Amino acid sequence: MLTKFKKNIRKIPVVSGLAKLVYDWRQEKRLRKKVAGFLAAGSLPYASIAPPQYTVGYEPTIRCNLRCKMCYQGQTRALRRSELGTDEVMEIFEKLKRKTATIKLVGGEPMVRDDILKLLNFWYKNNTRTILQTNCTLINANNIKTIKQLTNITDVLTSLDGPPELHDVIRGVPGAFDKLKQAIELLKKSRPDIPITVFATILPWDNLDDLLRLIDVVKGLGLGTLNLIFEQVYSAEEVRAAKNVFTNIFGWSEDNYRLNTQVKESFFPVGFSAAKFKNKLKEARFYGLKKGCFVN
């Protein structure tokens, strides 16, 4: 009876919201404790069958200067205000460097950290290949001078979701496209050796009908490839299935991981069909070929 009562209570929006706040706070506290353990230990807890070197995915911050409408991190960003300080990060880097062949910085937006160039410089000094994933709005005439010197940065990944006005709407900040364009121009001038990979998140109700215009914009920026990706949406049932895999196959408790994803039921606009979707993608690929832009 008590269990049934708890389940019914959790269906009340205000109560379920408070319960999520408490849950996320506890998870954050556990993660901080685990990180403190990493810092106190002599080495990181690598698995016994760990390879000689890794490609490391590193999230310097959950913070971001944009408000993208499809961002799956938005649900937890307000709760994750704390982040490791420079000294803590450097301490972990020291323990990671022997095992790191490549490090990829993702976000949030890495460039919002005041110490991001210092963190990047650590891997430059260790001659470690570095991939920077950024929305490019914070790369400017000042920091490009340092980025130019960090020759270990071998790739820049960024996002462009439509023509200028539509990109700004999807990214939630006016002027986002202009700053992206400026950053790409600075990168191409200062580091022409760095390939700039552009991803577009397809939102069927927002930008599907503008793919051809988007291809023109990509070509106008002097780029030759456009990678199409889809909004990362998972239902509550899919999240439960993932947790079951972690528990039953990997033997993990919820203290060992955090699922940072967008939980909602997927849907398509009224009148939308899979056939239309397929035809739009096919049309974009053929148009890209004619324009000299490979649409992946």
Automatic annotation (TrEMBL):
Keywords: Iron, Iron-sulfur, Metal-binding, S-adenosyl-L-methionine. The keyword S-adenosyl-L-methionine applies. The keyword S-adenosyl-L-methionine applies. Residues 50-260 form the Radical SAM core domain. InterPro entries: Aldolase_TIM, Radical_SAM_PqqE_MftC-like, rSAM, rSAM_sf. GO terms for molecular function: catalytic activity; iron-sulfur cluster binding; metal ion binding. It holds the Pfam family Radical_SAM. PANTHER family: PQQA PEPTIDE CYCLASE, RADICAL SAM DOMAIN PROTEIN. This is Radical SAM core domain-containing protein. It comes from Candidatus Portnoybacteria bacterium CG_4_8_14_3_um_filter_44_10.
